[in-house]
Amino acid sequence: MRVIKNFIYNTGYQLLIIILPIITIPYVSRKLGANGLGIYSFTNAIVQNFALFGTLGITNYAIRQVAYFRDDPKKLNYTFNIVFFFQLLLASCSLLIYFIFVLTKGRQYLYIYLIQALMIVSAGIDVSWLFIGLEDFKKNVVRNTVVKIIGLILILLFVKGKKDVFLYAMILSITQFTGQLLMFPYVYNLVDVKIPHLKEMVKIFLPVFLMFIPQIGIQVYTVMNKIFLGILDTKVQTGYFDVSDKISRIAVTIPLSVISVMYPRISNLYSKNDEIFAKEEIVKTIQIVHLVSFPLCMGIVGCSKWMIPWFFGKGYLPVIKIVSIMASIVIIMSFSTAIGDLYLLAKNHMKAYIRAIFAGSCISVIGNFLLIPILHAIGAAYSVVLAELMVLIVMLYEVKNELPIIKFFNNIYIYFLNSFMMFIVVYTIGLVFNTSSILTTFAQILIGIIIYVFLTIIDVTWARDYAIRFFIKIKSRI
């Protein structure tokens, strides 16, 4: 029951994440312009790297450890204090280095860099991992929802033109920082907060650092491509890539929400040595991930030609091709994240996880240097897709003798065919309406969902059984 509640909370929040950008992205892209948005994307990518170095691989490590010891109050207190204060120490060091960088290399966008320092502070005091490890998603979801809505209101009130990049950065930084502070009253009700001895904190450096190594690689093909674009190309191309990246990563949050709910549950199963049930849960989760990710990918490709002009403005027409290329990462990234998080991280198989991420990082770096000078933002998009694909291939190879890989591909051809049929319908609707408008996009999405759900219930046994049980339950309550 807890898993279902957490999934509902998390999915509801992910839907909010999808809905809010429908308002903010077209508004901000028009007000700031491609150049202004590119400046924010470039500076934010840099500060995110400092935030990453300021927390190492603590989040995934902390979630797993809390899930391991959540039934033992003494060990839970110890785990929280060691992890939190170690995180705070690392973030403080990263913040100091960041200020040195800003004062020596970042004077062109000095004030933007300075206000974004709050994002590093926010990373240092982030305690969301405690609640995720305890499988209490409600508090995180409520906090994030309030912060997102307040941020949206402030953006609409104060961001009015191309000179408001600083205001935009300030709003996002302050709301994120405030959101972290709101969680601490709950923390004091769950654990006894005490500053541990430095020697105790140092003990977790190695396992945390092992978690950090793949995080560096992930940054290379998720954030560094924007930096490469900013250096090798124009800020306008960076802006085009950024909005394309946002669309695909907003879509991928839906299947990833399933994985994030199951990660602490499966980690807890492994801590109890219940491997058989854990592997069964992994197979079920991957099936759900495929069920969701295929139509999302096809839906983006089918809608982009008519959605982009009204969503971002006519100045963003090059985004249509870029986002169509990047849509495939919804499928690829969802699949690889399920294997990586639910098995390799949950089982602490860090070497295999690192090898996969390292392979993807190498492809990303090579692809960026070769393709960006020739294809610009499109080159960066191809680099991301190739990097994500390499990660998936290596992960499948790493687990081939440990997990029932064949079962991962059960029904995958059905998901593809149903999604392709949905794509044909969605694209045809666009041709019939023959105009870029919110009405066209709404019709495409609504009819696309109906078509896909109908076909899936007919073709997929477990989905049909679930639908029947759901309707019987609803009928019994009427």
Automatic annotation (TrEMBL):
Subcellular location(s) per record: Cell membrane
- GO annotation, cellular component aspect: plasma membrane
| Protein name listed in UniProt | Oligosaccharide flippase family protein
Q: Which InterPro entries match?
A: Poly_Biosynth_Transport (IPR050833), Polysacc_synth (IPR002797)
Swiss-Prot/TrEMBL keywords:
Cell membrane, Membrane, Transmembrane, Transmembrane helix
- Organism of provenance: Limosilactobacillus mucosae (Lactobacillus mucosae)
Q: How does it sit in the membrane?
A: Multi-pass membrane protein
The membrane spanning regions, by residue number, are: 7-27, 39-63, 83-104, 110-134, 141-159, 165-184, 204-224, 247-266, 287-308, 320-345, 352-374, 380-400, 412-433, 439-463
